[in-house]
Every structure is written in C-alpha cells, then in structure tokens.
Amino acid sequence: MVKLGLAATEFNFDIVSPMIEFAKRHAEFLGAQIVAEVIVPGVYDLPLAAKKLVQRNDVDAVVTLGAVIEGETEHDEIVMQHAARKLIDLSIEYGKPVTLGISGPGMTRLQALERVTDYARRSVEAAVKMVKRLEKV
After folding, report:
1. What confidence score (pLDDT) does residue 106 get?
2. Taking Cα atoms as reference points, which of 58, 53, 135 lies closest to residue 98?
3. Which pLDDT score is estimated for 73?
4. 3-class DSSP state for residue 92?
5. The pLDDT of residue 72
6. Could you say which residues of the chain have pLDDT below 50?
7. Is 26 a catalytic residue?
8. Which pLDDT score is estimated for 120?
9. What's the CA gap between 25 and 6, in Å, rounded?
10. Whether this model's pTM surpasses 0.85
11. Catalytic member of 10, 55, 75, 114
12. Residue ranges of the alpha helices (H) in the chain?
C-alpha cells in the first residue's frame, strides 16, 4: 500500500478544504493511505511542511494542495514559481515524489473552485503512480 503525506494550506481554505476531502477519498479509492497530514498558512509554507513529511520513513510520497488566486500584482506568480521549484527540489533530493496540487497562478476564485477535484485528483494520482513506477527502477 502506498503511504502518503498530505500538506495543504489554510489560505483560501474555502477552496482547499474540499480539495483535502476529495484527495482523502481518492487516495482510499486508489488503495493508498494518508498517514500524515499538516496544514500550513499558505503556499509559500508548503515546501517546509513537505520536507518534514518526505523525511518520514512511513511516507512514500507527499501530496501538496493549495490555491494561488490572481491578484492585482505579480505576487501570485512569484509565490507559485518559488514553491513549485522547492517542491521539485525536495522530490529530487529525497528520491520521493512530491506532487503539485496547487491551482494557479492566474486563476480567479471561481476558476479555482471549479477545478477543486481536478487538482486534488491529479496530485494524488501522480503520487501513487510515481511510487509504483519508481519501485520498478
């Protein structure tokens, strides 16, 4: 059974909360188990939480969930670029998948709400698939 860590944000929780619930149900559907969960303030904080999870011996992969909503500045793009880069770095450094279930940047709140299940599903599926495929290498 694939064991997952889940890191999600409380910022934009009206969007992220249903993502978390869907991710849990989808992990169960795929025969995976979420063994650890941490909620952080925002997307900027996800890499540190993901690092703590990926360091655990009982975690095969980490699923990250969040929403970066477009604002009047380029803040959303900067936050997303740096968070995504650090999550990739963690995956490579620890040899465990760290998946990106963060909607945005450039999305409105309505667009993000419409894509809740898409981002959660893809993040969980990528984590499970990567663990299984890397076991064969």
Report:
1. 82
2. 53
3. 67
4. helix
5. 67
6. none
7. no
8. 96
9. 13
10. yes
11. 75
12. 13-29, 46-54, 75-94, 109-114, 116-135
